[in-house]
Amino acid sequence: MAVFRLVSPEPMAPVNDHRRRRGSLTREVLVSNVLWFTQLRWIVVALLVVCEILAVTLGRDLPILGDYLERMRSAPLILALSLAGLNVGFRLHARRLAHVERPGAAAYANLWVQIISDLLILTAVVHLVGSVETFVAFAYMFHCVLACIFLSRRDSLLVVLLAAGLYSGCVALEGLGILPPAGLFSAAAGADPGVQRTPLYTAIQVSTAIATWMVGWYLTSQLAEDVRVREQALSLANERLMRASREKAEHMLRTTHELKAPFAAIDTSAQLLLRGTAGALSWSVRDVVEKIRARSRKLSTQILKMLQLVNLNADAGRSAPHKQLQLDAVLKRVIRAAEPAASAQRVTFDCAVAPVKITGVEDQIEMMLANLIANAHVYSKVGGEVGVRLRTEADNRAVLTITDHGIGIRAEKLPRIFEDYYHTTEAVRHNEMSTGLGLAIVRHVALAHDIELTVESEPDRGTTVTARFARP
Amino acid sequence: MPRITVLDDDLDFTDAAAQVLAEAGHTVSVLNEVEGALDRLEANPPDVLILDVMFPEDSQAGFTLARAIRARKKIARLPILILSAINTRFPLGFGPHDLDEDWMPVQDFLEKPIDFDALIERVGRLAGATPQ
Fold it and tell me: How far is it, in rounded angstroms, from Cα A428 to Cα B100?
């Protein structure tokens, strides 16, 4: 025997729950970061090439730097070429990652190789310019800040520690004489012998630099982490909204089906009776069956409109996505759908519809037009004509005019026609299917889309509805 | 004499539709479940399939079946008339303008409650227009 136990679901973690994995990067962000680093590196390559050009062209001409630049000739070019070569490799690899389903480990590997190679080359530059005699060591700060922005807190700390290690190592090797001093103010550069490194001087320089990077890391990584957490929270909230929207749409669909289906079944049975499938009906019985059919259709229509109104009210709380629409195409579709019902009353449409674009929610605009067109032909007299004009005015606003020559509306009742469930006595007399919800739906959509509605009417002469849409 | 298959879980509707279509001169068969329907349609292809969208376990079973039919060579060109009580104006609803070879590969669409005269007219048009 199969058993199913209904249990309460786990409560969803609040959207701003900081217990979520901090600092994790999405696939798109990771690949984007990798590519961005490669683009930034071209700037560094360009700077090194400029240094090489200066070294070659100015060379001995500069009074103090002449010997240094002469000695440094080719070094910037070698570094630039190395960096450029590495960058091409990184970029090609990154581009391939963009098409991989799970780039995770490969993307991280690419990023780390970039960082390590950058730091090694920077260490070479620091050594060549002057590791403690100049402030060039603070260039490591750029990498620390970038690491905080693009990596997790833990990974950015590793970058800072790596930079500190490379810098300290470079200074230590210079101090031990393993690396010959090559900086701008070193003795080899002909600098004043008074500018000598003492252990204290070196220790202060190195520790100041590292302390600055650590403080910079702490502040920047904290801010970057907060931004990332908020971004994740927003992303999660968006996911939940999308899911809730899909579930709501599915629920509405099911509800519509479950409510309409019984009435559809009543209508089907009534049709069978009226067609004589169960035998000929007397006129009185036929009359009753027709009333049953009419009433079930009315209820079915009413349920539909009530659900539409509920849906619109729910959507009013959070705006549905607006997109550009071809209003004339939607209008033509609505008129085509209305033609069978209109022709049953011998009502025709006289249309002059220009191509017009608006911005809106297509389903809602279609609902509004369907109700306006339906009202026009339903409340027309038999054999009447409904005029439909769609154009753009000088101020680029779309204007739709629907004119019928039907029963019209009395002046004192006009202000109420957009109320929920309001229908005039004349309307009910003319159309027993009237639900009083059609224009309420029109009102909701018009308000949501900043559409100006004007209704002019005269009893027994007809009604003109003008809708002025907002500029696209 | 065109052969019509009506596939809908609503027994009242399928009985009524079968009766009306038979009176209009068609040979009608009825299926009330989606499961196994594809194989049965392939074994005995009708001239027109009248297909509901929503079934008890799957709100889009009709669409799924229509796409599966298009993937079977023998019945790929079977004319399909979709029926539904779904409101065409909700986001997941659909209308005639959504008929599309990839997503909703059917020839026509009727919203419930079905008017039988309209049903007979559409079926006649489909049976005459696209021979199997």
Answer: 40
Do B112 and A264 lie within an 8 Å CB cutoff? Answer: yes
Give the type of residue at A27.
R
Helix (H, G, I), strand (E, B) or coil at A37: helix
- CA-to-CA separations, B8 to A34, A272, B56, B90, in angstroms, rounded: 54, 18, 10, 22
**In terms of CA atoms, which chain B residue is nearest residue A371?**
B89
Distance from C-alpha of A375 to C-alpha of B71, rounded to nearest angstrom: 43
| Residues of chain A with C-beta less than 8 angstroms from the C-beta of B10 | 261, 264-265
Q: Which residues of B touch A249 (CB under 8 A)?
A: 90-92
Which pTM value belongs to this model? 0.56
Per-chain mean pLDDT for chain A: 84
Q: Which residue has the tokens 């009242």?
A: B12
CA atoms within 13 A on the CB side of B113: 27
pLDDT of A19 above 50 = no
Query: Burial level of A433, CB count in 10 A (0-12/13-18/19+)?
Result: middle
**Cα A305 to Cα A292: distance, rounded to the nearest angstrom:** 20
Provide residues of B within 8 Å CB-CB of chain A: 10, 12-13, 16-17, 19-20, 23, 54, 59, 84-87, 89-93, 95-97, 112-116, 118
Q: Is the peptide bond before B96 cis (omega within 30 degrees of 0)?
A: no
ipTM: 0.78
Please give, rounded to a whole number of angstroms, the shortest distance from the CA of A99 to a CA of chain B.
25
Cα Dmax for chain B: 39
Kindly give the interhelix angle for A283-317 and A438-448, rounded to the nearest 10 degrees. 20
